[in-house]
Write a structure and sequence with these properties.
Rossmann fold, alpha/beta
Length: 351
C-alpha cells in the first residue's frame, strides 16, 4: 500500500482525485487550510466509497494545515515516519486560483502559491520524498488564435496567478536539474468542469463564481438571473470564446496515470497538457447544457472580458503517448454530472 500526501485535497479537483486514489488502494494524508473548501467534500468521498461497501475511513487522514507554515507540512511527514509509512509522493493541488483576485491582491498569490510550494519542496527534500505531481495551468501559455497549444509553445502569462504557476514550474525544473533523483509531473489543466456522477461531490466556489460552468448551473437552478457572455465578436464560428472543457474525473484519472508513470520510470521532469483537444464555444456549451438537462439558461451579450482569448484548446497527444491517458467523458457527460451535483446540493457543501 503506497502512502501519498495530497495538498489541497478538500478542493474541487483534489476531492475527486482523493476518491480515485482511495479506490486504487492508496493511503492518503490530505493537508488543506480550507481557505476555499470544506472538510465535507472528503466526508462525501467516504460516503461514495461506502455505497460500494468500501469502508476506507482509516485510509484517509485529513489534517487542517497551511503550506505557508512549514511546521504544518513537517508534522505530516513526521507523523508518517512514526507510523513507518514512507511517503511515496505528493500531489500538490493547494493554491489560490482566481485570476481576478490575483490582480487585486498579488502579494497573497505569490506568498500562498510560491512560498507555500517552496516550503513543501524543502520538507520533501528533508524527508527524502522526491516525487511530485503539480497542478499547473493552461493559463501559462501565450494563446495562439486557432491553433492547439502544445507543451513546447511559448509561455507568457497575463496575470499574477499565471505567473505564480509558471514560476513554480521553473522552480521544479531547477530542482530537477540540480538533483537527478526528482520525479516531477507538471500538469497543465485546461478548463476543469463537471462533477462525480454520484452528484455527491462537485465544485463549490466561495462567493460569486467567475468561471462559466458554475455560473451555467446556477443560472439553470435560478440562483443567478442570466449568463453574461463576454464578447460576440471573437474570430470563432459563432463569435463566442472557445475553450477545452475537461471532465474533472478525466482530469483526476490523469493524476493517477502521472503518479504511476513517475513511480515506474527513471527520475525526470514531465510537463504535460491535460485537456480533451476539443473546443466548445460559450454558446455551444449553453445549448448542450439546455438540451442535455431540459432546462433554460438565459444569456445576454456583453463586452469582451480583459485578458480573454478567442481559442484555448490543448494538444493532448503527449498525455496520450506518455501517460497512456485519454479523456473518456464528453461535454454531455459534463453537463449531466454537473447539473446532478447542483440539483442535489443547491447550496454546495453548506447545509
Ligand atoms: P480549489 O480552490 O477548489 O482547491 C484548492 C485547495 O487548496 C482548497 O481546498 C484550498 O482550501 C487549498 N489551499 C489553498 N491554499 C492553501 C494553503 N496555503 N495551504 C493549504 N491548503 C491550501 O481549486 P481547484 O479547482 O481544485 O484547483 C486545484 C489546483 O489546480 C489549484 O492549484 C489551481 O490553481 C489548479 N488549477 C485549477 C484550474 C481550475 O479551473 N479549477 C485550472 C488550472 C489549474
Ligand atoms: C470560459 C469562457 C469567457 C464567464 C480560467 C482561468 C484559467 C483556468 C480556468 C485556473 C471564456 C466566457 C466566462 C462569464 C463568459 N483556471 N465567459 N461569461 O477564462 O478560460 O480560464 O479558468 O488555472 O487560468 O483563466 O475560464 O470559465 O472564466 O471562461 O462569457 O461570466 O467563458 O469569456 O470564453 P477561462 P472561464
Amino acid at each position: 500500500m503506497s502512502t501519498i500526501i495530497v495538498t489541497g485535497g478538500a478542493g474541487f479537483i483534489g476531492s475527486h482525485t482523493c476518491l480515485l486514489l482511495l479506490e486504487r488502494g492508496y493511503e492518503i494524508f490530505v493537508i488543506d487550510s480550507f481557505c476555499n473548501s470544506s472538510a465535507k467534500s472528503l466526508e462525501k468521498v467516504l460516503m461514495i466509497l461506502l455505497r460500494f461497501n468500501n469502508d476506507l475511513k482509516d485510509k484517509l487522514h485529513l489534517i487542517k494545515g497551511d503550506l505557508k507554515n512549514i511546521s504544518d507540512i513537517e508534522k505530516i511527514f513526521k507523523n508518517c515516519l512514526k507510523q513507518f509509512k514512507k511517503v511515496e509522493g505528493v500531489i500538490h493541488f493547494a493554491g489560490l486560483k482566481s485570476v481576478f483576485d490575483s490582480v487585486m491582491d498579488p502579494l497573497s498569490y505569490w506568498e500562498n502559491n510560491v512560498i507555500g510550494t517552496i516550503n513543501l519542496l524543502k520538507v520533501m527534500e528533508k524527508y527524502d520524498c522526491r516525487t511530485i505531481v503539480f497542478s499547473s495551468s493552461a493559463t501559462v501559455y501565450k494563446a495562439k488564435s486557432d491553433k492547439l497549444l502544445t507543451e513546447g509553445d511559448f509561455c507568457e502569462p497575463v496575470n499574477p496567478y499565471g505567473f505564480t504557476k509558471l514560476t513554480i514550474e521553473r522552480i521544479l525544473s531547477d530542482l530537477n536539474k540540480n538533483n537527478d533523483q526528482w520525479r516531477i509531473a507538471s500538469l497543465r489543466y485546461f478548463n476543469p468542469v463537471g462533477a462525480h456522477e454520484s452528484g455527491l461531490i462537485g465544485e463549490d466556489p466561495t462567493g460569486k463564481p467567475n468561471n462559466i460552468y458554475p455560473q451555467i448551473t446556477r443560472v439553470a437552478i435560478g440562483k443567478l438571473p442570466e449568463i453574461k457572455i463576454f464578447g460576440s465578436d471573437w474570430p470563432t464560428h459563432d463569435g463566442t470564446g472557445i475553450r477545452d472543457y475537461i471532465h474533472v474525473i478525466d482530469l483526476a484519472e490523469g493524476h493517477l496515470c502521472a503518479l504511476e508513470y513517475l513511480s515506474n520510470q527513471k527520475p525526470q521532469m514531465l510537463t504535460i497538457n491535460l485537456g480533451t483537444g476539443k473546443g466548445t464555444s460559450v454558446l455551444e456549451f449553453i445549448k448542450i447544457f439546455e438540451n442535455t438537462n431540459k432546462v433554460k439558461v438565459p444569456f445576454s451579450f456583453h463586452e469582451r472580458r480583459q485578458g480573454d482569448n478567442a481559442f484555448v484548446v490543448a494538444d493532448n497527444s503527449l498525455a496520450k503517448s506518455i501517460l497512456d491517458w485519454k479523456p473518456k467523458r464528453n461535454i454531455e457527460d459534463i453537463c449531466r454530472d454537473g447539473w446532478k451535483w447542483q440539483l442535489q446540493n443547491p447550496n454546495g457543501y453548506s447545509e
